[in-house]
Amino acid sequence: MHIQESGPGLLKPSQTLSLTCTVSGGSITTRDYIWMWARQPQGKGLEWIASISYSGDTFYSPSLKSRTSLSRDTANNQFTLQLKSVRPEDTAVYYCASGTVWGEGTLVTVSS
């Protein structure tokens, strides 16, 4: 199975970040699979953002819940993270993953 993140690399403060995770070699609706987004700012630890289950149930980090939403496109085997009102502190490498399978990550920079 292969996971690939895609999205804009640079945003201005207050914009909405939209990142898509495309899964190949597996289905996002396979029973018992959970798909997640996490991020890692430079020099800091990994932070879980949100998860979506094989059945579409969503789970959010309390610290980001007010700005975050997850959706999925089962026809294209993708799930998408939206983070509203981005701030410079949202600058990080963003990863999608399921279990031990991780994407390579995509750098998102928030700067005016």
Notable characteristics:
112 residues, 0% helix, mainly beta
User: What's the shape?
Assistant: globular
Query: What is the H-and-E element order?
Result: EEEEEEEEEEE
Residue windows where pLDDT falls under 50 for at least 5 positions:
none
Beta content: over 45%
Number of helices: 0
- Tell me the Rg in angstroms: 13 Å
Distance between the termini: 37 Å
Structural class: mainly beta
Biggest β-sheet, characterized?
7 strands, mixed
DSSP helix fraction: under 10%
Mean pLDDT reading = 96
Number of strands: 11
Description:
This protein has 112 residues and is mostly beta strands. The chain is built from no helices and eleven strands. The chain has strands spanning 2-6, 10-11, 17-24, 34-40, 47-53, 58-60, 68-73, 78-83, 92-98, 101-102, 106-110. The strands form two sheets. Strands 2, 4, 5, 6, 9, 10 and 11 form a seven-stranded mixed beta sheet that branches. A four-stranded antiparallel beta sheet has the order 1-3-8-7, with no helix packed on it. The chain is globular, with a radius of gyration of 13 Å. The model has no long low-confidence stretch (mean pLDDT 96).
Summarize the structure.
By secondary structure, the chain is mostly beta strands. The chain is 0% helix and 52% strand.
